[in-house]
Specification:
The chain has 427 residues and is of the alpha/beta class. The chain has 4 domains: 32-107, OB fold (Dihydrolipoamide Acetyltransferase, E2P) (Beta Barrel); 114-259, 3-Layer(aba) Sandwich (Rossmann fold); 264-337, Ubiquitin-like (UB roll) (Roll), CATH 3.10.20.90; 351-426, no CATH class. The chain contains 13 helices and 16 strands. The protein has helices spanning 111-115, 121-127, 137-141, 163-170, 175-186, 222-230, 247-259, 288-295, 351-355, 362-370, 374-381, 391-395, 402-426, and strands at residues 27-28, 34-39, 56-57, 62-63, 73-74, 79-88, 94-102, 149-153, 191-196, 210-213, 242-246, 265-271, 277-283, 304-307, 314-316, 329-333. The strands form 4 sheets. A 6-stranded mixed β-sheet has the order 1-13-12-16-14-15, with no helix packed on it. Strands 2-7-6-3 form a 4-stranded antiparallel β-sheet, with no helix packed on it. The protein has a 4-stranded parallel β-sheet with strand order 10-9-8-11. Strand 14 and strand 15 form a beta hairpin. The chain is globular. The N and C termini lie far apart (53 Å). It binds iron/sulfur cluster (2 copies).
């Protein structure tokens, strides 16, 4: 719960919202006639694509853009591709979107069903990437990664968000199956469940390896869980030994193997302009305006739609934005009530430095980032020590969008690093 307005003069005392004691079942949003799927790969007009307008796809069919594509999207419905077009996402990332016209009769592609009796990380990564909760299957399947511990997270990572807590409460009696399945497919036996202190008292979790997380923001962020509960300090740039898996992702894996088919219904908590919450399940690929219309949430020109929470979320630029595997929360803010970013210069008030849990010199960092000096920001101002909490933006007197600059800076650094690696490989 936010105890004060977004921009204020005192240090914030922020408590995360708790899920309702007796939550209602989510409202199921019907599958719409048109779905939108995002492929995390740019469209290249010179190359011959594997898909074209008019192609028919089955439910559960994996869609690759090119012969050598490493990423894929799984079709949540049977239908026909009616459009393929480029799209620029956050931080200028080039991607591709597909529009699917949904068939009335749904045929399910059977390749995964044949493998579901023998769960392993290879078939999970091959068929189940992008299921609700977005399990990090690619990373788990990568032999370069050396995870030795898994934390299933039933805590939400921003204010106002309660979806993970809801999923954990709803499927508490099945969490042991998720633990067993994850052990089986990853070979990792050290599996804990992160949950709020209050929920950890429930008898259904007796005997499980629990991480009891306090309800103050920022205790639920992975670097804080590692430092406070696992005794592993956050070291910038070091590969993590611990793999964090959202509880919905773990439960989606269980369902997919038990039902012998991929699953697509994502739980989302919607918070409207009055603060009213509605929980829904919507098929991945459903345009978000379909959800708003169905549950009676009105939106107007200039309103802000936030995917995620108020501190770490990102803005949706269109009501046609599709439901994504990791979309836990949608917040609609009325235009007059949205805290606006400014282009005023830093006045050196020092609030960002005081509040930063990583002791980053944010007032200096922001100067490098504003100038696009990303490597210098990392070398001189500890950009990579930032744990992405968003608190600096929250307290900034000058309303500088510091957190957005930080994310852009990290993204650009990663891009530079991968370009250097590619060049080195080519040499
Ligand atoms: S988001 Fe800001 S306050 Fe949070 S760790 Fe990063 S620099 Fe520090
Ligand atoms: S960046 Fe914002 S919070 Fe930080 S010192 Fe400057 S004005 Fe103050």
């Amino acid at each position: 719960m936010i105890k004060r307005s977004f921009i204020g003069l005192t240090a914030p005392k922020l408590k995360c919202d708790m899920v309702e004691p007796d939550p209602k079942d989510p409202e199921a949003i019907p599958i719409p006639p048109r779905m939108i799927l995002l492929l995390n790969e740019p469209l290249d007009s010179i190359r011959e694509s594997l898909i074209k307008q008019g192609d028919r796809v089955q439910k559960g069919e994996r869609i690759f853009l090119y012969k050598d594509s490493q990423s894929y999207v799984t079709s949540p419905v049977s239908g026909a591709i009616t459009a393929i077009a480029p799209i620029t996402g956050n931080y200028g990332v080039d991607a591709t979107y597909l529009v699917l016209e949904t068939n009335t009769k749904q045929d399910v592609e059977q390749s995964f069903a044949e493998l579901a009796a023998t769960p392993n990380i290879e078939n999970a990564d091959r068929y189940l990437r992008g299921i609700p909760g977005d399990p990090p299957l690619k990373q788990l399947a990568d032999p370069e990664n050396r995870f030795n511990r898994i934390v299933i997270t039933g805590v939400d990572d921003d204010l106002m968000c309660t979806t993970r807590q809801y999923v954990l409460a709803r499927f508490a009696d099945k969490i042991d199956r998720a633990v067993a399945l994850l052990k089986q497919i990853t070979g990792i036996n050290d599996i804990s469940i992160a949950m709020t202190e209050t929920m950890a008292k429930l008898p259904v979790f007796n005997g499980m390896n629990l991480v009891r997380v306090a309800s103050d923001y920022i205790s639920s962020l992975p670097p804080m869980i590692m430092a406070k509960h696992l005794g592993i300090p956050f070291v910038p740039g070091k590969d993590l030994d611990v793999c964090f898996i959202p509880v919905e992702a773990a439960m989606s894996l269980v369902r997919a193997y038990e039902e012998k088919q991929s699953v697509y219904d994502k739980v989302i908590t919607i918070i409207d302009k009055t603060g009213k919450r509605t929980r829904v399940t919507a098929t991945i690929g459903t345009p978000i305006h379909r959800i708003f219309t169905r549950i009676g949430v009105e939106t107007a020109e200039q309103d802000r739609i936030i995917i995620g929470g108020p501190l770490r979320g990102i803005a949706a630029y269109t009501l046609y934005h599709p439901v994504m595997p990791d979309m836990d929360t949608l917040i609609v803010q009325a235009s007059g009530e949205s805290p606006m970013a400014s282009d005023y210069p830093c006045i050196n008030c020092g609030k960002c430095v005081k509040i930063c849990p990583s002791k980053v010199p944010v007032n200096l960092l922001v100067r490098y980032l504003e100038a696009g000096l990303y490597q210098e920001a990392a070398d001189s101002c500890d950009l990579l020590s930032c744990i992405d909490c968003g608190l600096c933006s929250y307290v900034c007197t000058a309303k500088i969008p510091i957190f957005q600059y930080i994310r852009l800076g990290k993204h650009e650094l990663m891009k530079m690093e991968s370009e250097i690696q590619t060049e080195a490989q080519n040499v």
